[in-house]
């Protein structure tokens, strides 16, 4: 399993995150992509977000797809001790059975969530993207 993290830092919009916050943003993502599709007269929302939220637990949920190009993505939230402070994060994981399509969609979702929370995105390949204002 490989992981990406969106860490909420001092420059982020908020210092706390819940699964409901993440689900709300994913529903918003579906909404805006469906509007794009209606403007283009194309059913883009099914292609932009080919997943259903399943297996909800206390600190994570699974996105599963019936499309043959996609399988699953796991999204969770947590906290870690960083420099004496507690830092909240969103973890996006790709299980062994995930496809290249899942990795592409997971990267899209990570970037979207990183921008919305103005966080620090640690991508699957180890690179870091900064979405908060740095001094």
TrEMBL record:
<dbReference type="InterPro" id="IPR015062">
    <property type="entry name" value="DUF1885"/>
</dbReference>
<protein>
    <recommendedName>
        <fullName>DUF1885 family protein</fullName>
    </recommendedName>
</protein>
<dbReference type="InterPro" id="IPR036294">
    <property type="entry name" value="Rbstp2229-like_sf"/>
</dbReference>
<dbReference type="Pfam" id="PF08968">
    <property type="entry name" value="DUF1885"/>
</dbReference>
